[in-house]
Amino acid sequence: MYEQVARVSDDVGMSPAPLYRQIADTMRSDITAGRFPPGSKLPSERELIDRFGAARGTVRAGLNVLITEGLITPAQGRGYQVQQHEVFTLDASRHENLLFSRPEDGDSFSNDVRHAGRAPHQEFRVEVTEASAEAAQRLQIEDGGRIVLRYCRRFVDDTPWSIQATQYPQWLVSENPRLSDPGDVVEGTTRYLADRGVKQVAFHDEWATRMPTPDEARELQIGPGIPVLVWVRTGYTSEKRPVRRTVTIFRGDLNRVTYDLGDTDALPTEEVNAA
């Protein structure tokens, strides 16, 4: 009994947190410190029971915390494995430029991910709602005006990568009804609008970082201490009319954003192709 208490004290200290939380905290620290690198197997439940002097149910509760955070995955009959996460690089200066994408490869996100040799996946929902004061200002509509919100959760290699909410003014959706389809617009909404004569020729971007909300952390499977990167893009036609406002929330630990500005012909080839 005293030996078990000593082992727990060595690993988790005299924390007032429940034992399963202490186990999760200790194993999380081991993973982030590199003791268990991406793709490696964790010790068996039996080994963890011995290490922490805890019941099997308590050990499993601690491991379930790490599963919820996206740090580990259960392998059927083979214990638990540390997630393998690769950082995805987004070239924001090319993103949504239709010259760099093919209609048959889907929207800009799918094109970017496939170009990197990785697998994209998206989940959609659509709703009609009232515009916030900020959205109304950006879209140049009255406060509380009706907008169509296209919400999308995006995955790279089955790992949550970003969540995105695009707001369209009701007048635009009335003229371009596929924007209200609850599923994917296969060729992408930017190309769909361009093919119907609504071409976005300029974008205003805003970037910010912050900690995720509880809902964002759950949907992106973000662990404690990981920030999000917020990208707000407003698209304009040649008539200087805003036609959409997109808010994208990226996982801070899985994303890298690059820009090429000015005369890109002057850049070394390796810089242009790095993204």
From TrEMBL:
Record flagged with keyword Protein biosynthesis: no
Domain (HTH gntR-type): residue spans on this chain: 17-85
Gene Ontology biological-process entries: negative regulation of DNA-templated transcription
UniProt KW keywords: DNA-binding, Transcription, Transcription regulation
Superkingdom of source: Bacteria
GO molecular function: DNA binding; DNA-binding transcription factor activity
Residue stretches in coiled coil: none
A Pfam match: UTRA
Record's protein name: GntR family transcriptional regulator
Lineage: Bacteria, Bacillati, Actinomycetota, Actinomycetes, Kitasatosporales
